[in-house]
């Protein structure tokens, strides 16, 4: 059809990032790989809130060290946030970049291999943290890092080969670098519990390294993944063009500068430099949020449902997190601000955003699998008993955030306890949703296998 | 979305108009609810239901048929049969839904809404809106961007004319 003499089409300035349906079915990875990450994340989600309940008396004034609070934090960061990012990245990057990766070591697929180390490793690590068992923490920490390395190899290869979605890839590279630093800091912190080497002059203080570790995890690894994937997912669901690459790059550069200042100044305990990093980071996320608002304003779809109520709430929590972090650096003794900062960062911004997106991604992938197998997909809104599960989850999640935050600020342990219980109920509802959708995918494949039998 | 080819821009505008009407339908249905039928003389609702049936009739007769006859073969030549299988499958699901919706709305014009009729229109309307919007999402995500790359500028005008006639 193309006339050889015709001029090449001019590349579109604002390419639609969702040009992902082309050949998407052929790039769907085996359903059980993303599903095992998503179901594990939903289980850890419940565990994280329950651990918070178990350690409710220590939440408000938490200042580090093993126990239920540390276990709850890592059940959420490693068990829910990173777990979801891994499952989503394996599937979405294949489809969105058009690069099909099937890496194997011997007979073993590397993506599967990462789950074998990462999922049980996280279970053990969380258990070890709850119990304060250093040996278990060290062993399981090594397993988690091995899983992360396998993830980095697969995802890094896709990033290296991909030619589209440049802004997401730039975020992805930066997130992977943060992940390496984060894992190193994490292993050093665990080792220090046994060896106590961080008290030596050449190393940062244990508490300062823990703050650097939190910044690298929350804003670096997970934060950059969330910001980067937003440039694909938000336009895709709102049916809109991607933001201008130049503007997105401004946001990314500001965030990277903020991180480059925040982490070393946290290690050095330099409050002034940390405050400066906070201001720069705030500028970066403001640009990002303005771009996201423009995407929604220009999108064809205006009714985006409950999932975008969650996403919008997360966008409110994002600048709030940085402001709280600034205040916590300046006045760490007031209103339990350091605990509040960590809570809003991971339960407020990141968890709210990820559960909002996951409730769209899971039915979408399920529908793609049904089509691939030539089966009629149910309506998206009928999957996973959404009318009950997702509404219950949203109501409980919002209430839990308010209750726990208020409990931390006022030092009222009973409010933290109440928030934790409500959060657990919401997480159980989300687990019910995830299992419901997962059951559908498994059912499609079982039906297909049955039909193919002679 | 900035498409280079006129045919893609026209299809995109068609999609936007359809999504707008269906989002209105979802909003109004959610506001009224399933259990209580609206009063028989509700001019805004009657106008909206008429818009929905008009848009969906144009969609399933003009838009779908044109795509299947003129555009899918072009995309098929590019080897994207997997995507087309999804889109054809969805056309086949949406057509009877739109037809049933048209008939239900037509019947309500004469007889008003009994509780059962209204519950039927409510369910049908929400299903139609969801399936058609998801279908449009897929076309905007894969089909139109690809079409924009493969349609020759010389054929663009002829395709646009053919689409105008099909509608």
How are the elements arranged and paired?
The complex is a heterodimer of chains A (454) and B (167).
Chain A: H1 32-54, H2 56-59, H3 68-97, E1 104-105, E2 108-109, H4 110-131, H5 134-161, H6 166-195, H7 206-238, H8 245-268, H9 271-298, H10 305-330, H11 337-372, H12 386-410, H13 413-452
Antiparallel strand pairs in A: 1-2
Helix pairs in contact in A: 1-3, 1-4, 1-13, 3-4, 3-5, 3-7, 3-11, 4-5, 5-6, 6-7, 6-8, 7-8, 7-9, 7-11, 8-9, 9-10, 10-11, 11-12, 11-13, 12-13
Chain B: H1 6-32, H2 43-77, H3 81-111, H4 115-150, H5 153-166
Short description:
The complex is a heterodimer of chains A (454) and B (167). Chain A is mainly α and 454 residues long.
What characterizes the major β-sheet of chain B? none
Instruction: Classify the beta-strand content of chain A into a percent band.
Output: under 5%
Instruction: Give the overall shape of chain A.
Output: globular
Given helix and strand content, the structural type of chain B is: mainly alpha
Helix-residue proportion of chain A: over 70%
* Regions with little confidence, pLDDT below 50 for 5+ residues of chain B: none
Helix and strand content put the structural class of chain A at: mainly alpha
Walkthrough of the structure:
The complex is a heterodimer of chains A (454) and B (167). Helices cover 77% and strands 1% of the residues of chain A. Chain A has helices at 32-54, 56-59, 68-97, 110-131, 134-161, 166-195, 206-238, 245-268, 271-298, 305-330, 337-372, 386-410, 413-452; strands at 104-105, 108-109. In chain A, 56% of the residues are buried. In chain B, helix 3 (81-111) runs antiparallel to helix 4 (115-150). By secondary structure, chain B is mainly alpha-helical. Chains A and B meet through helix 11 of A and helix 1, helix 3, helix 4 and helix 5 of B.
